[in-house]
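Tutorial, part two.
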Amino acid sequence: MKGLPHDKSVESCLAKLREHFPAWQDAELELQPLEGGITNKNFRVEAGGVSYVLRLFGSGSELLGINRDHEHTCSEIADRLGVGAEVVYYDPAVGLLVTRFIEGAVLSPETASRPEVIARIAEILRVVHGGPDFPGSFSPFEMARAYHRRASERHGDFPERFRPCFAVMERVESALAGGPPPRPCHNDLLAGNFLDDGRNI
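Running the prediction step on this input gives:
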């Protein structure tokens, strides 16, 4: 396995994949770490002339409210809608997801702010919003409360002006109550989360 980092977790995951993923059983594997991924380790894997992305889930990410089963299902929906990479393999017990690698350029904040690029992003978001329901739900208000609770349990420190922010947040939450029914949503529109392959984003 060329380029394999000295990381037993990566090595054990690849061994598991060889058992369950026929395309990798006898192929010479070449690994290249990919940048980004706050809660994952990501690698480009070359196997038998085909490029994949191996995502190894970071331990403790459930404390951030990340549900890997939901992530897998949402990835499959994005694939079917034509706005995400093809999902090839998922193993929650090992903690990994394999997708096809997409050749393209990660958007920078400068590129993503161009009007013509914003229009292209808006088009794919319309596809997502009009697609099938995602599993689970997301509330920024509940997430903020959960993060505060978990940090407090671990004796985290907060600035004095932090608590009044919760009162403002609750007023915003009340004002939004009774609005339109929830729809599938991206919820993380960082420029680095978008890839332009020259035709599609």
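Residues 115-129 form the longest helix (15 residues). In part three we will examine how such features are distributed along the chain.
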